[in-house]
Amino acid sequence: MALYKDIVKKIPVQAEKKTKQKEYMNEGLLPIIDQGQKIIGGYTDDLSKRVECDLPAIVFGDHTRCVKLIKKPFAPGADGIKVIRPADDSLYIEYLFYATKYLAAKIRDKGYARHYQDVEKQEINVPSVSAQKEIVSRIEERLSSLDNAVETLNKTKKQLAIYRQAVLKDAFEGKWNYNYRTEAKLTDDMKAIPLNNGEVDLPKEWKYVYLSSLGDLSRGKSKHRPRNDSRLFEDGKYPFFQTGDVKSARRELVDCEKMYGEFGLQQSKLWPAGTLCITIAANIAETCFLGVDGCFPDSIVGFTPDEDKVNKEYVRYFIEASKLRLWAFAPATAQKNINLTTLENLMIPYCSLDEQKFIVDMIDSRLSECDAIDETVDMALKQSEAMRQSILKEAFEGRLV
Length: 401
Hints:
- The chain folds into three domains: 2-126, DNA methylase specificity domains (Adenine-n6-DNA-methyltransferase TaqI, Chain A, domain 2); 128-178 and 356-401; 183-351, DNA methylase specificity domains (Adenine-n6-DNA-methyltransferase TaqI, Chain A, domain 2).
- The protein has a five-stranded mixed sheet. The protein has a four-stranded antiparallel sheet with strand order 2-8-5-6. A three-stranded mixed sheet has the order 4-3-7, with no helix packed on it.
- Helix 4 crosses helix 7 (312-321) and helix 4 (129-172) runs antiparallel to helix 10 (353-396).
- The protein is of the alpha+beta class.
- It contains ten helices and 18 strands.
- The chain has helices at 4-7, 93-106, 116-119, 129-172, 243-248, 262-266, 312-321, 323-328, 340-344, 353-396; strands at 2-3, 8-11, 30-33, 42-44, 57-61, 67-70, 75-76, 81-86, 123-124, 207-210, 215-219, 238-240, 252-253, 258-260, 276-279, 287-290, 300-305, 347-350.
């Protein structure tokens, strides 16, 4: 057995080579490797930012525990990565890659704290190079079958997403026959918006109106800096939800990783259960309802509907149907975001409350089976990740060869 830090060498990454996420390009001469989940975070045309090291090299996400094997020249992201190579020829790079993934999953997840210091304190078995190559071959043989299954699951998710969008498209274009359709009545503070931007024709009884005329839209609050100040969470009892929580929620948001205390609440706002949450940064146009009273930052907008005008489920489904359109408003940067004005000026097809209820019921009916399949696929994907870790565990505990 050998101590991890004794069998590797860390490649220095100079500060001037790092690229901030807001400076990423969508394409360019040199890929930028950061600690995100995607292999490539973005691109740069500045070849002077290239990391000087032999390849392949391993990039370890210090905060995220993501481990990547990089085989082509690359530039580093702004922060949080370690670039690693074997200390000498007695260590096969692919063996070190899988060993690092195994150790990264083995150590305790400390959230956004740094993890490399825990990895380098771990021990790993280092057999002969030929034995290392045999172990890598066995690992990749097992992972290949697993990867094929994961590919099939991901294809299923894409097909479900296409079906879902088709259902929503028909719903908000008035394609479904409703026998009791009446003209949408507008109050004094609402006005019908004429077609002028390529919007689809609606049934003659429907109108386009601005989302802001159907209720209150307000951004969340989290004024204190730094946002991870421990004082915000002392004696925490008020749920603090973030964009990732909204994205992972099916419909109603209850669980969260962090709770604000009294100090945290003072610089935020407590939104009532039932508020429709709409993300406007990173994960754009993800929605869910608060299942409990809670706080959220300004990367989330809260919508409180005027229930005399609109069904809140109707709005939630329309935001989902408009996701691609809202993404188009986001600047071409790695950190996608839109502003409150974009949502306020979003044109929503408006019909009577009775027809809104009919549409919501029809969507629920048509998507219920789709959602059940999607949940099953998600569970299978989680199980596949557990199987991936099990394969690595067997390999580095000497039970795979």
